[in-house]
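ARCHIVE CARD
CATEGORY: sequence design from structure
SOURCE FIELD: tokenized fold
FIELD CONTENT:
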């Protein structure tokens, strides 16, 4: 009976969400912003019950989303709350179909971010490599994938800018950009506090305090703590479970407005993020032997089959930002953004014991430890102006970053004679050798400008935009440890130096037309690139060049039915050149046991090279977003993304020696890129006596994606991950007035992965080890209480 009920609920959700087109959460209710940053509702909108205007900052000035000729999806604070998004990690369920967020292998402490199939970095622990999607918080670029898993502060919106953003946002935005905007001090007293609990021992506390302005200074303080126990139990007593987190942080901001037209905004934040790795499961067997205590696990499990030593990975970040804004004269605004950020991240990963090769009394359970340290400084200046026919922006950016890393790996467990049990190998981590270590300093300088001309003869309906950015990147560093010693190349042992620089111009041209008040069309050509660098897992630390994207996009943004319906669509096609491709060569030694089975003795680590693919790749796809207010209080949203990426066949750059057998170019498959993805949501709001009832249900679909190109040594095609349909929901009673206090109370229940759907989002195949991978997270649910005054 329980199973039948679950199937009926799942079917009903699928009909409601997929049947309407399935899409991203663009809107919640007519009165709470259909998905926007700082949404504003005019009196006309409010009276007509139409969709709210959505104000975005994608062009470094505030504009209406519907008038902005860029493909943008936005999640506002209401959408994030309804989906129970606590960090960027939680966006991996596909709230925005063309955006993919995933952990680097098993580590939530370093994220992979991908838009339209571009931006993926197969290894996020690379000091001299960059990602192709830029992440910004309040105008400040975050240079590393580490630290992105920390808890989000009081977010106003997350804008997802799709396609190359090289002109206004610069380097490492070839796939697009995530622009996170936080709420600013109001200068009026206010408090917003939330407390919650959930399954797996989870709890949450969040407080946001606005203080009254004093001496023209408004102050806002934010604090958050959120924690969850592991989703997979570690049988070893006293050791951390798998896929747990403990996050906390503080954010303070002061806004000073001494005179009309000038403001100084200072912000400080600090955060702590402790997380444990995902649990790797073996699905099918390979040719190498497995221990009896290592049964295959083809479905998601709640307890690991073998306990291992495990501890949380600790990330600590802090930063300062000072934004100066001066209205120098009517039509001219000058802005300065100065920022310093620092981050340390330890990564302790012992989640892969299931793929260990068995030998009687043999060691296994490879503990992978990586340490990362980074600090960055950036200074950006902007001049934002307008005349009757011209809107323009000019600026410059200086960015400097220093990154260090090192890594260790060693076995922590030993099988008994028949493989039915295992014991811990007594070890002191500090005594283990450093397998690899490197450092790099990056300096980047950019100058950019963009202008939009609206000619008189077109009656303000035609807009021509042109812009360009010149950038110079320089990277200086060295790889000074490989396999516990100095790198040795051609018989010479010495640190391998990186001393490279690149210059580039990224242009952009857009032609937009307002066909009517509610129908806007545009065509856009833009470029972007991901910086060159070097691979710290290689033996040679040889530099590779930047990769580039050139894309043409055509789109339309429409509103109709008295602004109760909104439909935005974009199609694009582009060239993808000099794609940075990784090849790994595991120089392995085996012996044959008395049963004729191959047993692994040794693997030389740090053997990954990055090369630029020859020829030209191809990008194409289309996206659609639909929002509908059919009746008062009911909002339906739907989004779909079709994404196609072709990468030219590429040759293995390794010398053709023992352990490397591929001699012809092999096809490279796009990773973290589903061909078809969709997301949809239903939101309902009903005013009741003394309260408001709100209900939210969203569903997110993709048809699976690759996470490995293929086996670079054999050319074996890697399998694609499973397709997925994940449903989230929330029910709430809000605006309950507490008599005599001026405060309001809200209570809610929420669920992520409501139907406990399971799929392998990460699936890999090795002829020796078999098929293995990571399952998505099991159902989580909880309840929250919110107080505002």
């Amino acid at each position: 009976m329980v199973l039948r009920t679950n199937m009926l609920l799942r079917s009903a959700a699928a009909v409601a969400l997929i049947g309407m087109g399935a899409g991203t959460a663009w809107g919640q209710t007519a009165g709470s912003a259909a998905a926007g940053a700082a949404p504003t509702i005019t009196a006309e909108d409010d009276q007509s019950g139409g969709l709210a205007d959505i104000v975005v900052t994608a062009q470094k000035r505030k504009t209406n989303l519907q008038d902005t000729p860029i493909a943008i999806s936005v999640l506002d604070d209401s959408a994030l709350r309804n989906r129970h998004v606590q960090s960027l990690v939680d966006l991996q369920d596909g709230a925005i179909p063309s955006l993919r967020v995933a952990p680097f292998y098993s580590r939530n402490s370093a994220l992979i971010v991908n838009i339209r199939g571009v931006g993926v970095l197969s290894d996020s622990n690379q000091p001299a490599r960059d990602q192709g999607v830029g992440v910004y918080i309040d105008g400040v670029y975050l240079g590393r994938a580490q630290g992105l898993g920390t808890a989000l502060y009081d977010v106003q919106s997350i804008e997802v800018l799709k396609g190359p953003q090289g002109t206004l946002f610069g380097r490492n935005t070839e796939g697009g950009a995530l622009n996170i905007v936080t709420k600013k001090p109001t200068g009026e007293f206010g408090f917003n506090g939330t407390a919650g609990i959930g399954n797996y021992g989870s709890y949450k506390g969040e407080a946001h305090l606005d203080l009254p302005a004093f001496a023209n200074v408004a102050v806002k303080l934010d604090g958050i703590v959120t924690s969850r126990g592991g989703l997979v139990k570690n049988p070893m007593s006293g050791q951390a479970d798998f896929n747990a987190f403990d996050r906390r942080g503080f954010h303070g901001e002061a806004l000073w407005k001494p005179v009309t037209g000038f403001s100084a905004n200072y912000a400080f934040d600090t955060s702590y993020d402790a997380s444990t790795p995902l649990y790797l499961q073996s699905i099918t067997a390979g040719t190498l032997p497995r221990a009896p205590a290592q049964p295959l696990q083809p479905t998601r499990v709640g307890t690991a089959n073998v306990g291992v030593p495990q501890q949380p990975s600790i990330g600590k970040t802090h930063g300062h930002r000072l934004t100066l804004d001066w209205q120098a004269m009517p039509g001219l605004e000058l802005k300065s953004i100065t920022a310093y950020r620092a981050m340390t991240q330890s990564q302790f990963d012992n989640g892969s014991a299931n793929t260990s090769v068995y030998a009687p009394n043999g060691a296994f359970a490879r503990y992978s430890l990586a340490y990362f340290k980074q600090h960055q400084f950036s200074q950006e200046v902007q001049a934002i102006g307008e005349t009757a026919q011209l809107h323009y922006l000019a600026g410059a950016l200086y960015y400097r970053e220093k990154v260090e890393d090192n890594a260790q790996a060693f076995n922590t467990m030993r099988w008994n004679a028949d493989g039915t049990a295992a014991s811990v190998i007594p070890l002191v981590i500090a005594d283990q050798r450093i397998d690899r270590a490197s450092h790099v300093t990056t300096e980047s300088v950019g100058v950019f400008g963009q202008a939009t001309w609206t000619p008189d003869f077109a009656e303000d309906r035609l807009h021509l935009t042109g812009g360009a950015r010149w950038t110079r990147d320089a990277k200086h560093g060295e790889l000074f440890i490989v396999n516990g010693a100095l790198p040795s190349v051609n018989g010479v042992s010495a640190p391998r130096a990186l001393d490279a620089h690149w210059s580039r111009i990224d242009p952009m041209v857009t032609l937009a037309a307002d066909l009517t008040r509610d129908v806007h069309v545009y065509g856009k050509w833009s470029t972007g690139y991901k910086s060159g660098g070097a691979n710290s897992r290689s033996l040679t630390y040889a530099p590779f060049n930047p990769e580039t994207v050139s894309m043409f996009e055509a789109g339309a943004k429409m509103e109709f039915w008295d602004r109760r319906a909104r439909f935005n669509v974009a199609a694009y096609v582009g060239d993808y050149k000099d794609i940075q491709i990784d090849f790994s060569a595991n120089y392995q030694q085996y012996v044959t046991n008395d049963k004729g089975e191959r047993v692994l003795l040794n693997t030389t680590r740090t053997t990954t090279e990055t090369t630029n693919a020859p020829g030209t790749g191809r990008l194409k796809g289309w996206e659609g977003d639909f929002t509908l207010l059919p009746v008062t209080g009911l909002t339906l949203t739907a989004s779909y993304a079709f994404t196609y990426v072709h990468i030219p066949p590429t040759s293995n750059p390794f010398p053709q020696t023992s352990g490397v057998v591929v001699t012809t170019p092999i096809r490279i498959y796009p990773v973290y890129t589903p061909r078809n993805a969709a997301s949809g949501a239903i939101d309902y709001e009903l005013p009741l006596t003394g309260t408001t009832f709100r209900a939210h249900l969203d569903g997110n679909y993709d048809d699976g994606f690759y996470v490995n190109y293929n086996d670079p040594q054999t050319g074996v095609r890697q399998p694609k991950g499973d397709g997925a349909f994940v449903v989230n929901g929330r029910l709430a009673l809000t605006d309950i007035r507490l008599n005599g206090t001026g405060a309001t109370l809200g209570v809610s229940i929420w669920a992520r992965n409501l139907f406990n759907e399971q799929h392998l989002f990460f699936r890999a195949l090795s002829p020796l080890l078999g098929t293995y991978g990571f399952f998505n997270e099991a159902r989580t649910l909880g309840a929250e209480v919110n107080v505002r005054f």
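CARD ANNOTATION: DSSP finds three helices and 44 strands in the chain. The helical segments are 2-18, 43-48, 77-82.
SHELF: design records, drawer C
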